[in-house]
Design brief:
alpha/beta; seven-stranded mixed beta sheet; 12 helices; 47% helix
Length: 311
């Protein structure tokens, strides 16, 4: 059995020129054009396109509305609709801009993403420890990962897309600052091996992966199933766990990326404590920019025994 790392293959293959991918090539070409545009021109276009997205994305919006009303029952319908409107705008703006991560310079990335709190990373590095960055599914996550990858060695893990061309383009972008992208089936052992080599990575604790090995913990005004694996991973890899938040400022047309203080190891001792600590961090990150979280995900799919699905 092969023991080679299960990285995504970033080599270009002739099969990606097949006619079945021509529409994808067209979409990539459009994204590249937008990525080369200045933000002052691109963002107004994104606002116009967001109106169209709101009309056609009925199913994702239904899921997002359920998530918001479940997490924030105190908010009025008008408040929820405003968050959804802002959420769609930010989604389209960040999507249209994202190819700049590949086609524009590292200096452009530095200028676009203002980094704060890096002293927490430096403290870990000075102590000879890698970092597990904690960040939930926010629209600007690719910007956060690549901006940090300029400063320290990192890897990431992603699920393969059914469209091989889109998969290739996405992972070439994600690895454009030197980090490798693991296929999800590589598993936790691959990430542990990277920690032991001094490499850092992002862990997204908000995804609902089903009841197996999950622990329920408070999450805003409800409870959420969370898999408590970070504590053991950080201990085995001698890593510090640092939450990260990022938000796009439409007025300044820049991202603000903030590395927060490390989670104390004692807060993650025991599965229940770790789930509580992770959910608390996710709440903090989401609350900083609630309009920029991926609310369309079924993050509350797994419910406690006897409780019906909210979707």
């Amino acid at each position: 059995m092969s023991r080679k790392p299960k990285y995504f293959d970033r080599r270009f293959k002739a099969e990606l020129l097949h006619p079945k991918y021509w529409l994808t090539w067209l979409a990539i070409g459009i994204l590249v054009i937008f990525g080369l545009m200045p933000a002052w021109l691109r963002d107004p276009i994104a606002r116009l396109l967001a109106k169209l997205v709101k009309k056609i994305a009925t199913k994702p919006l239904r899921v997002a509305r359920v998530n918001l009303t479940t997490c924030f029952p105190e908010k009025s319908d008008a408040d929820i609709e405003q968050i959804l409107q802002d959420n769609i705008e930010n989604f389209v703006m960040i999507l249209l801009a994202q190819s700049e991560l590949l086609v524009r310079s590292t200096e452009n990335l530095r200028q676009r993403v203002e980094l704060e709190g890096f002293e927490h990373v430096q403290q870990a590095r000075d102590a000879g420890q890698p970092v597990i960055f904690i960040m939930p599914h926010v629209w600007g996550i690719e910007y956060a990962g690549l901006r940090l990858n300029i400063e320290l060695p990192m890897v990431t893990m992603a699920k393969a897309h059914r469209n091989k061309l889109f998969d290739w383009f996405n992972n070439v972008m994600r690895s454009s600052r030197g980090g490798n992208v693991y296929m999800r089936e590589a598993g936790i052992r691959a990430l542990l091996a990277e920690l032991k080599q001094g490499n850092s990575f992002f862990y997204l604790p908000d995804e609902d992966l089903g009841p197996d090995k999950s622990v329920f913990a408070p999450f805003f005004s409800t409870v959420k199933a969370t898999i408590p694996v970070v504590g053991r991973l950080s201990t085995a890899g001698n890593a510090q766990v640092l939450p990260v938040k990022i938000g796009y400022d439409q007025l300044r047309r820049k991202y603000k990326l903030t590395v927060m203080p490390a989670i104390a190891p004692e807060e993650m001792q025991g599965k229940e404590n770790e789930a509580l600590a992770l959910n608390r961090v996710v709440e903090q990150v989401i609350s900083a920019y609630p309009e920029q979280y991926m609310w369309f995900l079924k993050l509350l799919r797994t419910r406690p025994p006897g409780e019906p699905s909210i979707y």
